[in-house]
Automatic annotation (TrEMBL):
InterPro entries from the UniProt entry: 4Fe4S_Fe-S-bd, 4Fe4S_Fe_S_CS, PSI_iron-sulfur_center, YfhL-like
The keyword Signal belongs to this UniProt entry's keyword annotation: no
Source organism of the structure: endosymbiont of Ridgeia piscesae
Protein name, per record: 4Fe-4S dicluster domain
Occurrences of domain 4Fe-4S ferredoxin-type (ranges): 1-29, 31-64
Alphabetical keyword list: 4Fe-4S, Electron transport, Iron, Iron-sulfur, Metal-binding, Repeat, Transport
GO CC annotations on file: cytoplasm
GO molecular function: 4 iron, 4 sulfur cluster binding; metal ion binding
Gene3D superfamilies: 3.30.70.20
Pfam families: Fer4_7
Superkingdom of the organism of origin: Bacteria
NCBIfam families: di_4Fe-4S_YfhL
């Protein structure tokens, strides 16, 4: 499933540059993750890079966007154009 940034975000700016899919952007109040671009770093890394660098642990899985590893990998393939 895609990830989501909660309102515990302190806008520290460390997650945005870590996202290989460009899924993280600055929202009105806090950073936001586009679920159409978030693959939890499947295809790029073994772990979600934004979660790894977040100092306040505010990036859980988004229950509104449940996806299997296979679905995340298929999304990665669509985003990157890899077969």
């Amino acid at each position: 499933m895609a990830l989501i940034i909660t309102d515990e975000c302190i806008n520290c700016d460390v997650c945005e540059p870590e996202c290989p899919n460009g899924a993280i952007t600055q929202g009105d109040e806090i950073y936001e993750i586009d679920p159409d671009l978030c693959t939890e770093c499947v295809g790029h890394y073994d772990t979600s890079q934004c979660v790894e660098v977040c100092p306040v642990d505010c990036i859980p899985k988004d229950p509104e966007h449940e996806e299997t590893q296979e679905e995340l990998y298929a999304k990665y393939q669509r985003i990157t154009g890899e077969e």
